[in-house]
Design brief:
heterodimer; A: alpha/beta; 12 helices; 30% helix; B: alpha/beta; 8-stranded mixed β-sheet; 10 helices; 23% strand
């Protein structure tokens, strides 16, 4: 590696293009204030206009809470955002008046969830539910709205859309419901679509259809996508950049190719090695020893230290900041940082938790 | 939550190869079927769902037969039929020469010492009010395999260490364990009576990737040391590739393809198997396989299409497929597919 490692917040060349979404040092706590449990800890990442970013992590990594925090949907109490910024087109959503948030949510930022059935209203027709999203944010006549709904249902591949306007969610299969959810989400041409495990509840052939649809939405509407998933296959399919989370923290962030070709955090490497692959003849899988620490139990040091094959003395004591591995790849690991260039690194402001 | 002991070797086990001894047929299934009739309100008779239809296959000693398919295809029902946890509507299961359907309830119970089950949900399948030792030793007591409480505790301690848990966990309760640890407890319970056959119903699909690898490896190690057979029910074709010797693919209650693992993955012959394999997203941004995107959804199992039940979604369906149901026929030795136009086709990685 010829390039000298740069500290994260130095921001090399990206200053020219302002990101659509910029999350900075976001921390979320749950439980009583006296003994809070921190489930998201200093998370920072960006989504460029038209870009697609994936957040990958196992249960308890804080990936879903991060996406809910961006939408202002953390149930409070018991949850609260204790620090950080969520900037959307330059506006900090966390400081925005409560009354203005619904304007942005649904129109500029839309979200789809894992469970399409529990996110749809069972006693409202599909047409009315999609229409409601449009009515809230856009002025249209009833006729125009109807046309728009049909157009949306067509976009998401619901056969015979005119005939299905009056249907109820229970009359649709899981995959069809997820299509309806996507139609609702993109009804107002959002700039950002947050998808939290959108295909996890679906069968693999239906998942393939929904992934195809997400590509289509991105192509036709130029919507940016923030995809939350535990499935590295889905992430590789949809995303250009990947954020890897572990125990509430971002441990690695890079372009999708680097994540899969040259993973630089030991957790990312372990995760990639442990996934079973279709084209792999091995009979034994690599296993990361131990299990994910419970939220809030890591008091100091790197949260991965107990399971890490490469750990050094410093790891148990001090949380590593994000070090740049290359222009487009950063990892929070002392060993990786040391390997990149041991000498010239200082401690930056994010170094201690 | 209890942290597992971390051994430095645990991560290095990957290179170890497995040699298995696969023997003669242990279980023979012939024409097994199950019809659930749906009881409607107000006494009118509802439609009947053929959850499993005419399943015939064998499981050999020491072998892992994987049963794959999407939700509602009948794979879990078939697994339960094999253990007579659900009574079959027709067909026969022969285990080690004994015809299961002819056994009385009492004899069947004794038979279950040979046949155990591992469940999907590590949270729902362990009673929250019983200690780990009570959970694991229950089958031992049912079958009278332990005489004293000292013997019981010794046996539980031994089983816990075999599944990679500390024997000191014996007196704790399920809530104190993580999902992966609970699945280990479920495995300890299943192997406690030294079964010869285990039905594992989606044993790793509720687990995180890193834990999934641990459980898959553990299941393979136990099979190797004890020589039992698995019926491994799963929807995840990538996991199956790592654990199975042979694979059976189900669609709408029927086995549409069955064969040795290498054949199913390298030369899938049924268009449904081909579509399933092609739909798996590859964890690699630079190899995207040409996806066969199936039209629509799986039809309602209460109203299975006539002819070949896959014809409504099949990319190569012809007229004959709409009228005549194809039989499961051999395409090559031990590799069978139920398709009029069965043709081995490797899934290209584009």
């Amino acid at each position: 590696m010829t390039e000298a490692p740069v500290l994260v917040h130095a921001q090399p060349t990206a200053a020219a293009i302002r990101p659509l979404l910029k999350v900075e040092k976001l921390s979320v706590e749950f439980g009583p204030k006296a003994s809070p449990i921190r489930v998201v800890n200093g998370v920072s990442f960006e989504v460029d206009a038209g870009g697609s970013v994936g957040i990958v992590g196992e249960s308890g990594s804080g990936k879903s809470i991060t996406s809910l925090a961006v939408m202002g949907l953390i149930p409070s109490p018991p949850g609260r955002i204790v620090e950080g910024r969520v900037e959307f087109e330059g506006t900090n959503l966390l400081e925005l008046q409560k009354s203005r948030l619904p304007d942005i949510r649904g129109r500029d930022i839309a979200m789809i969830f894992q469970e399409p059935m529990s996110s749809l209203n069972p006693v409202m027709t599909i047409g009315d539910q999609i229409g409601e999203a449009i009515k809230l944010h856009e002025k249209m006549s009833r006729e125009q709205r109807r046309e728009r709904i049909v157009e949306l249902l067509k976009l998401v591949g619901i056969p015979n859309p005119e005939g299905r306007l009056g249907a109820y969610p229970h009359q649709f299969s899981g995959g069809m419901r997820q299509r309806v959810m996507i139609a609702m989400a993109v009804a107002c041409n959002p700039k950002l679509l947050i998808a939290d495990e959108p295909t996890t509840a679906l069968d693999v052939t239906i998942q393939a259809q929904v992934l195809e649809l997400m590509h289509k939405v991105r192509r036709t509407l130029n919507t940016s996508i923030l995809l939350i998933s535990h499935d590295l296959g889905v992430i590789a399919d949809v995303c250009e950049r990947v954020v890897v989370m572990y125990a509430g923290r971002v441990v690695e962030e890079a372009d999708v190719k680097s994540i899969f070709r040259t993973p630089s955090h030991p957790y990312t490497r372990g995760l990639l090695q442990s996934i079973p692959r279709l084209n792999d003849e091995r009979t034994r899988l690599y296993q990361i020893p131990g299990s994910v620490p419970l939220a809030g139990t890591v008091k100091k040091g790197c949260p991965f230290v107990a399971r890490c094959p490469d750990r050094i003395g410093r790891c148990a004591e001090e949380m590593p900041p994000m070090f740049a591995v290359s222009k487009s790849q950063r990892a929070a690991c002392w060993v990786t940082a040391g390997a990149a260039a041991a000498a010239s690194l200082g401690i930056n402001e994010g170094a201690t938790a | 939550m209890i942290n597992e002991r971390i051994t430095p070797q645990a991560g290095k086990a990957a290179s170890k190869q497995i040699d298995k001894q696969i023997g003669d047929d242990f279980i023979t299934v012939e024409g097994l079927g199950k019809t659930f009739s749906e009881n409607r309100m107000f006494g009118s008779s509802g439609s009947a769902v053929r959850a499993v239809d005419g399943a015939s296959f064998t499981v050999r000693r020491g072998e892992t037969l994987a049963l794959v398919g999407e939700s509602g295809c009948g794979k879990s029902t078939l697994g339960r039929l094999l253990l007579r946890l659900i009574e079959a509507s027709e067909g026969e299961v022969t285990v080690d020469g004994t015809k299961l359907m002819e056994l009385s309830t009492g004899d069947m119970r004794n038979m279950r010492a040979k046949m155990q089950m591992i469940f999907q949900d590590p949270y729902g399948s362990l009673s929250p009010r019983r200690s780990i030792s009570q959970i694991i030793s229950e089958p031992l007591e049912v079958f009278g395999m332990v005489q004293s409480s000292r013997q019981r505790r010794e046996r539980v301690a031994e089983l816990l260490s075999q599944v990679g848990l500390s024997p000191t966990f014996m007196d704790r309760y399920p809530r104190q364990f993580s999902g992966g640890q609970r699945q280990r407890i479920g495995i300890a319970r299943a192997i406690s009576v030294n079964p010869q056959f285990i039905v594992a119903d989606e044993p790793v699909s509720a687990l995180d990737v890193s834990v999934q690898a641990q459980i898959v490896n553990l299941m393979q190690d136990l099979q190797q040391s004890r020589g039992f057979s698995y019926l491994f029910i799963a929807h995840d074709l990538s996991v199956v590739r790592h654990i199975a010797d042979r694979v059976a693919v189900m669609y709408l209650g029927r086995i549409v393809e069955i064969g040795p693992k290498a054949r199913i993955y390298n030369a899938p012959s049924h268009p449904y198997t081909q579509a399933l394999l092609s739909a798996v997203p590859e964890p690699d941004p630079e190899t995207r396989r040409a996806r066969i995107i199936l039209k629509g959804d799986v039809p309602n199992p209460a109203n299975v299409p006539k002819g070949c039940s896959f014809h409504t979604r099949c990319p190569i369906a012809q007229d004959i497929c709409r009228v005549e149901r194809p039989k499961l026929a051999e395409t090559e030795q031990e590799h069978l597919a139920a398709c009029h136009f069965a043709k081995p086709m490797p899934i290209p990685v584009a």
